[in-house]
Amino acid sequence: MVSLMHVNNEIGSINPLAEISKVCKEHNIPFHSDTVQSVGKIPVDVDELGLDFLSISGHKIYGPKGIGVMYMRHATPWIPWMHGGSQERRRRGGTLNVPGIIGLAKAMGLAQNEMDDHRKHFIKLRKKLISGLDEKFGDRYHINGDTKNGVPHIINVSFKDSNGSGIDGEMLILNLDVENICVSNGSACTSGAMEPSHVLSGIGLEDKIANSSIRISLGKQNTIEEIDYFLEKIEVVVERMMSTAKV
Asked: What pLDDT, in 10s, does the model give residues 53-82?
């Protein structure tokens, strides 16, 4: 089986699932996609993408934590990992989480209805953010990932000092946290890891630059005023870190 994210959770790039699914079908290989970063953000159609399996998580679309969906195309072979019970056609055992299911269904409906408005909002915030970073840092910062074929709510950036070396990304996150700004150095799945992000290494970044990177993830409640605040604080923090590094 081939399993691939629809949208990369660190740099926001959209993977060409429809093209990959054609290759899978030529070799009779089932194709699964983790769509937690795309459902509710961009259109997702299992037929257009050619998916046999698709997974969704409720908390990524403002639904309850601990509930998700696994779509399986009819007649696709599968083996259950939790055996027992026939209420789920023997796909899984256990009692169903009815409140979670209802909450997820409601969240999915809202996400679908509000998707276009949210996307326009994310694009507006992203444009403001990048414009501010360009003005304040110029060529001392870099956007990681495919800027033309990506989602607008994930921006991954790295910073360089005057010598071209990356600053300490972990220290940058801690300094921003003091200013009540929440960013990360990768996905939540890899938080706490000390080695460079495998995603950033995979797109060719040197370790020192990968380690100077932060992921900015935008939500529907974020505002232009918060982007202005972020730009104000990150300029002070980065300049302070760069001047300290020179000493």
From this structure: 999 999 999 999 999 999 999 988 888 888
Q: What is the pTM of this model?
A: 0.88
Q: How far apart are CA 40 and CA 58, in angstroms?
A: 10
**Are 56 and 69 in contact, with CB atoms under 8 Å apart?**
yes
Q: Residue 17 has which token pair?
A: 């699932």
Distances from the Cα of 227 to the Cα of 72, 89, 218, angstroms:
40, 48, 10
Catalytic residue (choose from 189, 192, 221, 246): 189
Mean local confidence (pLDDT), 96-124: 96
Contacts with 194 (C-beta within 8 Å, 6 or more apart), sequence order: none
CATH topology of domain 2-109: Aspartate Aminotransferase; domain 2 (3.40.640)
For residue 245, name the pLDDT band (cuts at 50, 70, 90): low
Contact between residue 49 and residue 22 where contact means Cβ atoms under 8 Å apart? no
Question: CA angle 5-213-219, nearest 5°?
Answer: 60
Q: Give CATH 3.40.640.10 domain extents, the chain.
A: 2-109
Tokens of 198: 């495998």
Q: Residue 189 catalytic?
A: yes
CATH of domain 115-246: 3.90.1150.10
Name the segment(s) of the chain with CATH classification 3.90.1150.10.
Answer: 115-246
| C-alpha to C-alpha distance for 242 and 222, rounded to whole angstroms | 28
- Cα 20 to Cα 16, 31, 43, distances in angstroms: 6, 9, 18
pLDDT digits (tens, 9 = 90+) for 183-211: 998 644 545 556 789 999 999 999 888 99
